[in-house]
Specification:
The complex is a heterodimer of chains A (289) and B (269). Chain A has twelve helices and two strands; from the N terminus they run ααββαααααααααα. Chain A has a two-stranded antiparallel sheet with strand order 1-2. In chain A, a hairpin with a 6-residue loop joins β1 and β2. Chain A is globular. Chain B has 269 residues and is an alpha/beta fold. Chain B folds into two domains: 115 residues, D-Maltodextrin-Binding Protein, domain 2 (3-Layer(aba) Sandwich), CATH 3.40.190; 119 residues, 3-Layer(aba) Sandwich (D-Maltodextrin-Binding Protein, domain 2), CATH 3.40.190. Chain B is built from ten helices and twelve strands. In chain B, the strands form two sheets. In chain B, strands 1, 2, 3, 4, 6, 7, 8, 9, 11 and 12 form a ten-stranded mixed beta sheet that branches. A two-stranded parallel ribbon of chain B has the order 5-10. Classes of the chains: A mainly alpha (289), B alpha/beta (269). At the A-B interface, α5 and α11 of A face α6, β7 and α7 of B.
Chain lengths: 289, 269
């Protein structure tokens, strides 16, 4: 009896801790970040095209950073959605059971590779390779970062989509085949629509993962603060600006607050993404799966 | 009775803190000088086990402010003290004394395949502000220049800004990378790129340009011939004395100067 109670309280404390950490983080980024909105004005901060935080006088426009994040993340999804959903379909519907046994853990292993290793790979091999193949002056750019981020996101999209595809009731497949549909038609017309909400939430989660990823973009995206002119322009996503500049800026300075201001924007974006995932999942439950 | 106890307690505490003060040193300031101070403090405490040194970063301004307020015994600075700060210090009875502990040199590097060997500071400024965008304007082939810089808040960028850009803005298209190592790697793998790194990071994989006709080396930095260099300071209150002197002597000893070299700076002794 005492043991049970103790166990309950212990787990309760653990659950409470996460909530406390979450609110602590929210509180501190807003406390440190809001002053910059007051100082330069929300519009100038969000839509300003020039980021020169240590110049005199400093300029805190984060539009290039926001655009950089969107370009790189969008590019990552273009790479990862076909690869992730494709491999989910293959693993759950088409692969031989033996092949599935090998393939599935291999794709998931991709998720276990530390991001700094992806970064090193991009910096030392993929970047120079892309610069040579496409004849662009610099290999550290939005395109290279997109490819690497895309590959990183594949396991997230693949494993969640695969779960969704697996949970499509067997009767649907059988009914489809009974009506004379072939495998391809069954997958495209029946299974994917039935697994839609799971696939969509895997993509939203992948988006969240890609926009929050820091190490890879810090090492591979190039870090230039100009608005990107093409996909081969070096860019500076929000996360890499925070990571690169926070360490050496003076605490309490405008630059410090501006970096927290970026963190607020990033937080709001990921928060909205999580809400969307939650909502999509809930719709799915309501529909009776 | 109670009051008496309190008095005894207070005097004991004061005694302890006074005793501690003479045996501990607080260092604060520039993150550029931080690696020297940190490593020197560690080695110093290995030798003098009875002395304790606490080292903090914060930036040159923060360090000098701490020295003026009496919160630090030594202020690390990567720039000379300003007249305003000297005035402020004098008002508080502090007499800032400059100890130059090392020099920080910047090498301008290009990919070894780039057929350019020298550059003037003026052209360097034009490259990094975006006025010159092609190697042919500085005696090279007709190829676009890839300008690689360090991040906005790094000490290395600060030197570059001060000695080369002279108040101008670095162009938006320049790559801003997070470490000396990242700049070196990128220059190595990118033809027609140009960047700058601390002297300690030079290797065979990049080509260092002569700047205004002078080759960057420990020698030329020491003699003051190489222009892209600056002194690194540890400011003390008056000429170093007591424990602070023991520590400064260590920093200037061959062991201390070797530490400066190991963390990438040019020794002064």
């Amino acid at each position: 009896m005492i043991k049970e109670k103790l166990f309950k309280y212990l787990t309760q404390t653990a659950a409470l801790c996460s909530v406390i950490f979450l609110f602590g983080i929210i509180l501190s980024i807003f406390k440190e970040g809001l002053p910059i909105f007051a100082e330069v004005g929300p519009f100038k901060f969000l839509a300003g095209k020039s980021w020169h935080p240590t110049h005199y006088p400093p300029e805190f426009g984060i539009l290039p950073l926001i655009i950089s994040s969107i370009v790189v993340t969008g590019g990552a999804l273009i790479v990862s959605v076909p690869l992730g959903v494709g491999s989910a379909i293959y693993i759950s519907e088409l692969a031989h059971p033996k092949g599935k046994e090998i393939l599935k853990p291999l794709v998931e292993l991709l998720a276990g590779v530390p991001s700094v290793i992806y970064g090193l790979f991009g910096m030392a091999f993929l970047g120079p390779f892309i610069s040579r193949v496409f004849g662009v002056p610099i290999g550290l750019n939005a395109f290279t970062a997109s490819i690497i981020l895309g590959v990183m996101v594949v396991p997230i999209i693949s494993s969640i989509s695969e779960d969704a595809i697996n949970s499509v009731p067997k009767q649907l497949r059988e009914a489809s085949y009974a009506l004379g549909a072939n495998t391809w038609e069954t997958i495209i017309r029946v299974i994917l629509p039935a697994a839609k909400s799971g696939v969509i939430s895997s993509v939203v989660l992948g988006f969240g993962r890609a926009i929050g990823e820091t190490m890879v973009v810090l090492m591979v995206a190039g870090g230039a603060t100009a608005l990107p002119r093409s996909i081969f322009s070096p860019v500076r996503p929000m996360t890499s600006a925070i990571a690169a500049e926070m360490g050496e800026t003076t605490m309490g300075s405008s630059h410090f607050h501006a970096l927290f201001g970026i963190a607020i924007i990033l937080f709001i974006i990921t928060f909205i993404l999580n809400l969307i995932t939650e909502w999509v999942m809930r719709v799915k439950v309501k529909n009776g799966h | 009775m109670n009051r008496f106890k309190m008095f005894v307690l207070l005097s004991v505490l004061t005694g302890i803190s006074l005793f501690a003060a003479s045996n501990s040193i607080t260092i604060a300031g520039s993150t550029t000088v931080l690696p020297i101070a940190q490593r020197a403090a560690e080695s110093f405490m290995d030798i003098h086990e009875d002395l304790s040194i606490s080292v903090r970063g914060g930036g040159s301004g923060v360090g000098i402010a701490a020295l003026i307020d009496g919160r630090a015994d030594i202020a690390d600075a990567s720039r000379p003290i300003k007249t305003k700060e000297i005035k402020l210090a004098r008002e508080k009875g502090i007499d800032p004394y400059a100890n130059i502990v090392a020099r920080d040199g910047l090498a301008v590097v290009v990919n070894p395949k780039t057929p350019v060997d020298s550059i003037s500071i003026e052209n360097l400024k034009k490259i990094f502000t975006g006025e010159i965008e092609n190697w042919k304007d500085v005696g090279g082939p007709n190829k676009a220049i890839v300008a690689i810089s360090r991040d906005y808040s790094s000490g290395t960028f600060e030197v570059f800004k001060e000695l080369v850009l002279e108040g101008a803005k670095v162009k938006d298209g320049a790559l801003m990378l997070a470490s000396n190592k990242a700049v070196a790697t990128t220059v190595t793998t990118t033809p027609y790129s140009i960047g700058y790194i601390g002297l300690g990071y030079l290797s065979d994989e990049v080509k260092a340009l002569t700047v205004d006709g002078v080759k960057p080396s420990e020698e030329t930095v020491k003699k003051g011939e190489y222009k892209l260099a600056r002194p690194l300071f540890m400011y003390t209150n008056g000429e170093p004395k007591g424990t602070v002197k023991t520590f400064m002597d260590f920093v200037f000893s061959s062991q201390g100067q070797e530490i400066a070299r190991e963390v990438g700076y040019v020794p002064v002794k």
